[in-house]
Amino acid sequence: EVQLVESGGGLVEPGGSLRLSCAASGFTFSDVWLTWVRQAPGKGLECIARLKRETDGGTTDYAAPVKGRFSIARDDSKNTLYLQMNSLKTEDTAVYFCTTGLIAALGTILWGQGTLVTVSS
Amino acid sequence: DIQMTQSPSTLSASVGDRVTITCRASQSVSNSLAWYQQKPGKAPKLLIYKASSLGSGVPSRFSGSGSGTEFTLTISSLQPDDFATYYCKQYNNFMWTFGQGTKVEIK
Asked: What are the residues facing A73 on neighbouring strands?
């Protein structure tokens, strides 16, 4: 089945850390660029981290609110994308989605179902 | 950063109506523009990419147009399943930016 499945969300105190995972199946994971997008409660979509495929240099970039605190990485041998989140703030509370670039063979962009991260004391 | 501005923020319409949503970019994004539909508690679903290309499995009542800085999403005949929030997204820059969303409500 073609899908992305996130895991690792939960409740964490301010200043804490969390690592999200996104397991992929049904397509050639190593061929795609990958992205984390988050959505705070009742708010819109925010792209926070992107990662090119290794053959394109594996370049990363981050949105200003998370730069220096979050780190995106991939393990193509495990078809898994990660987001390491450190020094978490209450404003990081959101549903976190992993997503791909356009997969030409499928004619679409894949999204996971999302995982909720709540930062609260 | 490229800013994306959608209008209107909320739209009230009836089944069968023709609906148009506009997205403006703060600088040219060429045709690197996508449209998504999102329902509560769900992930966004791709409708349109490359400004006017229909995503796989998307009904033909959805269409997109535009280039540069101004884009539109049109639903030719609104169906009950179409009541949702719609987002535009530019991907001309490596870091994507989304519009603030347009909620399509039942009139």
From this structure: A82
pLDDT at position A105 over 90: no
By Cβ distance, the residue of A63, A108, A114 closest to B55 is A108
Nearest CA in chain B to A62: B95
Mean pLDDT of A81-92: 98
> Interface of chain B against chain A, CB under 8 Å?
34, 36, 38, 42-46, 49, 55-57, 87, 89, 91, 94-101
Q: For A56-74, write each residue's pLDDT tens digit.
A: 999 999 999 999 999 999 9
Report pLDDT digits (tens) over B19-71: 999 999 999 999 999 999 999 999 999 999 999 999 999 999 999 999 999 99
Q: Could you give the C-alpha distances from B83 to A24, B21, B40, B97, B102, in angstroms and in order? A: 30, 13, 10, 23, 11
For A101, the token pair is 């670039």
